[in-house]
């Protein structure tokens, strides 16, 4: 092709023999018979892929949506159309075991589809049948590197005037999609810009010399799909990306050199699909991710605790209530925590979830940090404890507080000096004190004892005396109390004493007229005692919340598929229970230290039908346990699980239930 701007000879399918011609005509007529207009158009997209290629469903669905032919939210419609195509033997599903890999088209069907695409001007083809760029024939251009070494990119950039007409640019096989900025600025009508990989294999390398040309994105106001999937040497994205107000799909998967996402990503209000998985140099998430409330697919969200840069936390995602598919990388062993499970409960449409543990944050832990189990009591910073306190109050009581519960200096000191006092004790104790302060009259004496988890006891004794605030209103003193905290074993006691011990009300000579009033106050104290008991009984400790669901009811209500990778603990997480995910059909656990599935109730069994266990050296189960836990199981696959010796299955570790 070189740099010539002349039109290439038209590609005409021409069967060589009479039998081929007869078979071709027969297939050509039958392929499109019975399909409606939309189905025929969607079928033509297969024409650009080489014969015999396996195309993933994701590629087809995103492209269809990018062109406005199909909304991603209508997933069943997309699947229904593909099933219709399979039913007519136009495409066939490619599977590895029971896992769907993609779809491919039979050669003669592909031949007929190419002919129809050429006839209708759906795509342009060169004389050898390669898809190419030819605006006079089609507004869809394909970037192709031929076996002879010529590139359709050269031809495209030689004709700047043609840029205005293109609505789609799709990279079929161009390994170096480097554009000139002036050409990119002219692609104002573009709806689909897919420069990355569509192939699933790792053998197709794509890279760019620089990303200067991406500044031209600012002129693509109609762009709906933008893909840099698998492109090397993309270290950053220009701010122009944030001006794509109509963008629905942003695919940055496996951009291994990408170091950061634009801070203004929250301006992409119509974004429904974001894939940042396998971008290993990303170390935090921009805060504005939480503003993408239309997201239905989010892949590669990073759970990280960092102090050097403000990052979007998982709890910030509470507003993404349309999520259907989510994958996260967790740099904390204790993910998800109680408050994060509460966020999961808000994702009522979530059907597919993948969690991978591991990363720099875990690997850089010191020995002393690693020695502390995430479920045991630890000394915490008061500010961090206040956050936990507030989250637990919202989950446990479902109430709103007008102001924070401030902690006195004496109480802060007690936090630093106490080794056996849990954050849960702080929550229950301080919440009880606050309610007591709000309800008690000046001068009342309140005593409260309540049982906590494991048999520990708590006594609150205090005399509350109003003090004047700057606005003239009365405020009950926070430090006028004495508390006694006992450890779970009752062998260690931490006392926190304030000035209130020395100022308790005494009844002496000359105070007889006050005796009746004191008896009335005593009765009030008993009533208040009962109220405080009820409040404290509703406030679970952190340990209790780690041992049981922090929310009432099912956490993962619509979840159908759960994929856990590199789970870091031996015991099963408390949230991994059948009652938390009653709709679960597929459960995959790959890698990690999992030893067992924990204890379940006799009548509590999984609804899982497909179970995959891989690289689990510590897992110990027998076949009877599997049948009891998973009574609906129809397919099981185990690989590199040395202790699962009693499992049934073939030489590949696959067991299929026979009807």
Structure explained in plain terms:
Helix 13 packs antiparallel against helix 14 (515-537). The protein has a 14-stranded mixed β-sheet, with helices on one face. Strands 16-17-20-21 form a four-stranded antiparallel β-sheet. The chain has a two-stranded antiparallel sheet with strand order 1-2. Mean pLDDT is 73; it is low at 1-12, 14-19, 360-513 and 536-551. Among the domains are: 16-122, Arc Repressor Mutant, subunit A (Orthogonal Bundle); 561-656. Helices cover 25% and strands 18% of the residues. 34% of the residues are buried. It is globular, with a radius of gyration of 32 Å. The protein has 16 helices and 26 strands. One of its GO terms (biological process) is defense response. Residues 187-363 form the Disease resistance R13L4/SHOC-2-like LRR domain. Keywords: Plant defense, Repeat.
